[in-house]
Amino acid sequence: MKYVIVIEDGASDYPIEEIDGKTPLKVAEKPALDRIAREGRTGLIQNVPESLPPGSDVANMSIFGYDPLLYYTGRGPLEAASMGVETKDGDVVFRCNTITERDGLMASSNAGHISSEEAAELMEYLNEYFNDKYPGFKGKFYPGVSYRHLFVYNDKENAEKLAKLDMVPPHDFVGETIADKIEFDSFADEVKSIMLESKEALENHPVNLKRIEEGKEPSNMVWFWGQGTMPAMPSMKEVYGLKGAVITGVDLIKGLGVCSGCTNLDVPGATAFFDTDYNAKGEYAIDALKDNDIVFVHIEAPDEAGHAKNLEEKVRGIENIDKHILAPLLEALPEYGDFKIAVLPDHPTPIDVGTHTRDMVPIAIYSTVDEPDDVQVYDEDSVKEGSLGELTGCNLLKLLLE
Ligand SMILES: [Zn+2]
Which residue intervals define the domain Metalloenzyme in the entry (predicted)? Predict the structure, then answer.
């Protein structure tokens, strides 16, 4: 038996006035997905536990078959996994933004979209600066892309407490005061002082002096958030007996691939945006089934369209997935014998809201061995009549394996 899970990130929506109260899923031309619903089973699925934020990391962890309440520790650790950062016992991994501080305010949460090259120089300099000043310094900066970096801090004694510290994402308070966002308990004093002291280290760095001269935002401070200890996830092979592969353009999902012991497949042209190469993703998915029992295909475009409140792009994203990924899969899968294919969003990203919500999402599963239900098309409402009823995200793989 082969398994395919296609994740249309953020695809489900609320009724939109502009299209007579319909949703993008209702107006999009998607014959392959409708066929999966018509010849398969349908229902609703909740990928986000009530106590956690409706992030793609949490929701996709559910879809990968891991209960986020047991395994989710933060986005920093997942990004570290995708970047191949080695960690050890007592490490806490923070997301580290290069930011612009001005007059005590968060002036820019991304330092004017600083280039990766400039930021790498600054991260390197911070490692030198803190190591020179504090011999035995327990932290290390890892440069990533543009303003997105990591800071790994080793503190065995306080790791669990630091992992739970309420650190505010910098994009959530642009233009607001910084000082009251870092009023932590004393166990976090050192982490706090590293953030504050980064200002001193970076302010007059040649990279920043040059940026100011060019009229750009300087990256004169770092901001830590999204931290956690590395999740102790058993491999998909151990839990489900499945050898898995993952296709995605998004680092967090790649991190889930690493943490679950799946293979991340590099697909040329796979971006995490509207312009992703849908065809290539479809072809790689089909090919990956030769060597794997299960393939996860994640497409970010509908979510990006939701964030951009771009209805046209959202509909187009759903149609592109249908034409270039689902249709070829349906055609190729019978060659592998018995198979099951599940299609679902991780969470809704409604056009009118412009960000993730925590509602249940529609799911359709076609299999060569199960009886279909009576649902004829795939959308937020019709699947409510489906035979799957209401599912919990992290039980999906168990259900597929039944
Ligand atoms: Zn998502």
Answer: 1-401
- For residue 360, the CA-to-ligand 1 centroid distance in Å is 13
Looking at the structure of the chain, the number of domains it has is: 2
Pair 16, 59 in one domain:
yes
User: Does residue 363 contact residue 391 with C-beta atoms inside 8 Å?
Assistant: yes
Residue-wise pLDDT for 84-107, tens only, equals 999 999 999 999 999 999 999 999
Take residue 119 and report the two structure tokens written for it: 């930021």
Average pLDDT value over all residues in the chain: 96
Q: Which domain holds residue 219?
A: 81-228
Q: What is the DSSP letter of 375?
A: -
Q: What whole-number distance in Å separates Cα of residue 355 and Cα of residue 309?
A: 9
- Percent of the chain at pLDDT > 90 equals 94
Amino acid at 9: D
Distance (Å) from CA 309 to ligand 1 centroid = 15
What is the mean pLDDT of the segment spanning 391-402? 97
Query: Could you tell me the distance, in angstroms and rounded to a whole number, from the CA of residue 71 to the centre of ligand 1?
Result: 18
Q: Are residues 31 and 41 in contact, defined by beta-carbon separation less than 8 angstroms?
A: no
Q: How far is the CA of 346 from the centre of ligand 1 (A)?
A: 5
CA of 125 to the centre of ligand 1 (A): 34
54 C-alpha to center of ligand 1: Å? 8
Residue 191 CA, ligand 1 centroid: distance in Å = 30
Per-residue model confidence as pLDDT tens digits over 39-69? 999 999 999 999 999 999 999 999 999 999 9
CB neighbours of residue 46 within 10 Å: 18
CA of 179 to the centre of ligand 1 (A): 31
The CATH number for 11's domain is: 3.40.720.10
Domain boundary among 228, 250, 265: 228
* Ligand 1 centroid to residue 198 C-alpha, Å: 32
Q: What's the 216 CA to ligand 1 centre distance in angstroms?
A: 31
- Cα 135 to averaged position of ligand 1 atoms, centre (Å): 41
Same domain, 37 and 160: no
Q: Check: CB of residue 10 under 8 Å from CB of residue 310.
A: no
Ligand 1 centroid, distance to 176 Cα (angstroms): 27
Q: In terms of domains, do 136 and 207 share one?
A: yes
Residue 231, Cβ density class (10 Å: 0-12 exposed, 13-18 middle, ≥19 buried): buried
Reported in sequence order, the residue ranges of 38-147 that DSSP labels E, i.e. its strands, are 41-46, 91-102, 105-108, 139-145
